[in-house]
Amino acid sequence: MHRPGFFPRIARALLFGSALAFGTAASPAALAQAACKSVEPRSEAERKFNPGHYVTIGRQELRSGVNVNAVLGRGVTGVQMRYAWSDLEPEAGRYDFSQIERDLEAVQRAGLQLVALIQDKSFNQEVPTPEYLRDEHTLRGKRGYTALRWDPVVVERMSRLVAALGKEFDCHASFEGIAFQETALSLDEATLQQAGYTPEKYRDAIERTLEAATRSLPRSRVFWYMNFLPGQQQYIAEIADRVAGSGVVMGGPDVLPDNPALTRRTYPLYERFNDRMKLFGSMQHDSYRHPRAVRAEGDGDEYWSMEDLFVFARDELHVDYLFWEYRTRRQPANSRDWAEAREVIARHPDFRRSG
pTM (2 decimals)? Predict the structure, then answer.
């Protein structure tokens, strides 16, 4: 006969020891992971799927004591948070996921889901890559820096980072998945050539990165922000063909119906892969100030409304997930802001496709 409470204490001790093995101090995420059995990558139908509206917010909206639901309003399914690669891996092979831990706890308290966007590209003078990758594996562009994503070293190190994230968070019910930044590199042709870029190298690197991520996150989603692939745009479709049905959610960083380049080169992919894989769109800063190409006579409304952009994303792009930038300032003054977006989300809390 066992003593009352003996086996529960043993179980807690085992969980605690397992959590330490993951390099944490028995955090809630580590405890969940320790109790979670390793599995082979799951099918689309078996993976987490919490579609709907997600909001990309900053740390101030998740700080202690803030009522996240009151800030975001009704109809929001989750949030997307940005994490620089350099913060997640301050030294080669040493990972620091404490910020994700804190954000995930706040998101869980609010009853929401978290998508963690890994930044290996910046649009300012901040370098997003770890220091050990900066000299030989990071390039400076006109507006910021980007990793040499086609370089085998970068592919391997990113895959190791994602594997560590998977061990820590894949089993957490509130962790929807990770996201990779847009495929556009924001580098001129001369810079790319000097760095040994070819479209084929980049295509193959993206495929390897996505496939490794779906293995490392067997229960969660991998959000792939695609738009342009320098040199061979058709390779985007080849990549999508390769990863369709594997847990990858394909989408883009801009919902801009009157953008000619997106209309010609990117938006047709949503129709092509509709019902073959999960899809998403993203309302970023330019969506809030997207001018109408054609306006009715006497219509003084220069910019697309957030309602019309939502309908376009839902009906033309067939999205399962829609990410909204938390943008509280109107720039220009007669453009759109979060207040209008929040009303749209509240009117359409569930827009999931049928079937």
Answer: 0.89
